[in-house]
């Protein structure tokens, strides 16, 4: 029997937002919206793994062009159907992954919300190296994701994360086997945390990173 693609969210696209709300209420959407106001006027924005695009409704109206990529055709269809009026004509929609990025094309801002947690460490290193190349010098990278630390998180949070990983493994063929220390990955690629906030009792972090010249 032919296996489906890894990280395939088509099966749960129609219930994804309701599922998120059932488990976390509005907190994950709050985390995504937290730093959207930091996006400069007329900035070119790359959204990778945007899902249903609910956060787009909080995107600043003065933003420039948005290149919106998602690997799920159904997620992308929902996002397009829900396109906010204030962003009309500003979004270029693309079905795929980071592999559809055009060589040499760069952006002022990158957004990865609950995207980095899909991958193994080796795959994530490659993705982040590629994305860093697509970000302008002094450009911003807005990241929001789950992060667990043995010193700061409660036992029930670890159980919840393991349950989510198992659920998505079954439903989407999730590639990742565990949560990775994302801050360490950003540090290795010389992306500096400029602002950060935590949600869900520290289980979710929203961070604005800035790209600095490699010394």
What is this entry, summarized?
The protein has 215 residues and is an alpha/beta fold.
Explain what you see.
By secondary structure, this protein is α/β, with parallel strands linked by helices. The protein has one domain: Rossmann fold, CATH 3.40.50. The protein has helices spanning 16-24, 27-33, 73-81, 121-134, 155-172, 182-188; strands spanning 45-48, 66-70, 91-95, 107-113, 135-146, 191-199, 204-211. Strands 3-2-1-4-5-7-6 form a seven-stranded mixed beta sheet. The longest helix is centred in the C-terminal third of the chain and has 18 residues, at 155-172. The protein starts with 15 loop residues before the first helix and ends with a strand.
- The CATH C-level name is Alpha Beta
Strand content: 15-25%
Structural class: alpha/beta
What is the 3D shape?
globular
Please report the total strand number as a whole number: 7
Strand order of the largest sheet: 3-2-1-4-5-7-6
Average pLDDT reading: 88
- Give the terminus-to-terminus CA distance: 50 Å
SSE pattern:
HHEEHEEHEHHEE
Give me the CATH fold name: Rossmann fold
Secondary-structure arrangement, i.e. CATH architecture: 3-Layer(aba) Sandwich
Largest sheet: 7 strands, mixed
The poorly predicted ranges are: none
The structural domain count equals 1
- From the alpha carbons, calculate the radius of gyration and give it in angstroms: 16 Å
Portion in helices:
25-40%
What's the number of helices? 6
Look at the structure and name the CATH superfamily: Vaccinia Virus protein VP39
């Amino acid at each position: 029997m032919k296996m489906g693609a890894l990280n395939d969210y088509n099966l749960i696209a129609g219930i994804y937002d309701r599922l998120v709300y059932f488990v976390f209420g509005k907190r994950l959407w709050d985390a995504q919206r937290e730093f959207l106001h930091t996006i400069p006027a007329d900035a070119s924005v790359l959204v990778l793994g945007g899902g249903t695009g609910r956060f787009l409704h909080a995107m600043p109206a003065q933003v420039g062009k948005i290149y919106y990529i998602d690997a799920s055709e159904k997620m992308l269809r929902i996002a397009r159907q829900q396109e906010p009026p204030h962003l009309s004509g500003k979004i270029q929609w693309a079905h795929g992954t980071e592999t559809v990025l055009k060589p040499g094309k760069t952006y002022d801002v990158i957004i990865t919300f609950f995207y980095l947690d899909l991958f193994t460490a080796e795959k994530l290193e490659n993705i982040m190296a590629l994305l860093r190349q697509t970000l302008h010098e002094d450009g911003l990278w807005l990241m929001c994701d789950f992060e667990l630390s043995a010193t700061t998180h409660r036992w029930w949070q670890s159980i919840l994360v393991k349950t989510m990983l198992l659920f998505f493994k079954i439903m989407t063929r999730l590639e990742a086997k565990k949560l990775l220390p994302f801050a360490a990955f950003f540090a290795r690629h010389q992306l500096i945390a400029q602002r950060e906030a935590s949600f869900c009792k520290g289980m979710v972090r929203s961070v604005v990173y800035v790209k600095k010249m490699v010394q």
